Amino acid sequence: MRSAEKVEMVIANIERVVVGKRQEVELSLVALLAGGHVLLEDVPGVGKTMMVKAIAKSLGANFKRIQFTPDLLPSDVTGVSIYNQKTQEFEFKQGPIMSNIVLADEINRTSPKTQSALLEALEEGNVTIDGETHQLQQPFFVMATQNPIEYAGTFPLPEAQLDRFLLKIKLGYPTLQDELEVLNRLENQHPIDQLESVIDTTELLTLREQVAAIFVDQDIKNYLVQIIHQTRGNDLIELGVSPRGSIALMKAAKALALLNGREYVLPDDIKRLAVPVLAHRMTLSTQARMSNLSAREIIQQILSRVEVPVSRRRVTST
């Protein structure tokens, strides 16, 4: 079975639970295939938690949920060393971060100190406790949900934390027809209870290896870097996108190419992913805020200015 067909099976399985959100499901899988993580921001009740559960079940992966609250401690996330009186040795008790798929629910409701406990895990795939480094299971994927920061009782994520998420997406309210479909599916029982895995974690790791092998033409890389540099020294942007953002956009574009059954990246892949990958990495200037411009609008302006290259597929001589 082709890689794109396997990914399509996963998407179709998730859509049995998440109705009318094809684009958001695809973006979540782009992050998963690229080895990144997702920040899912929206108001309560639109299906953020169900999205993560459906992904975990579709992969047959170990799943843990961390409910972030103001009194949550870093050790509640990463784990803790406890002294065993019988053996007279310290034993490490794993925290919920030690899983394949982790739902960091309402991450902006906990303190910055606890939020920072995720930094090492998101970037390096390990956690350090009492001076000892513990490797996390692979694949490792975090989908963090948050309510919009203007709601009471929240702690906005700092720039360093936001930069660790490959992309940020929003689900939004369903259409009238989609909401009717949700009611029909939930009338007797929740479809998440009937969901079964369609691929396993070993197959997912193989797909990640295939993503890494996707070809990116030098002209595409140049196009990508030009977009990134347009976010720096821009009067509308106080803090532009870092080199980590450049790498993230290339990885995501390669994953999207595989999802679409291609062995190479197109400029359209870059354009489609520019907003979800870059918008949360930028800090807008006072001028932009006074003009009521959003990060999305500024990125779209940049895309309209940067010349799109004519992509070339790699030709292998025989």
UniProtKB/TrEMBL annotation:
InterPro entries: ATPase_AAA-3, CbbQ/NirQ/NorQ/GpvN, ChlI/MoxR_AAA_lid, P-loop_NTPase
CDD domains for this protein: AAA (cd00009)
Molecular function via GO: hydrolase activity
Residue ranges of every copy of the ChlI/MoxR AAA lid domain listed in the record: 230-302
Origin superkingdom: Bacteria
Keyword match NAD: no
Coiled-coil ranges from the UniProt annotation: none
Enzyme Commission identifier(s): 3.6.3.-
Keywords per UniProt: Hydrolase
Residue ranges of every copy of the ATPase AAA-3 domain listed in the record: 37-167
A Pfam family per the record: AAA_3
Name of the protein in its database record: MoxR-like ATPase
Organism name: Alkalicoccobacillus murimartini
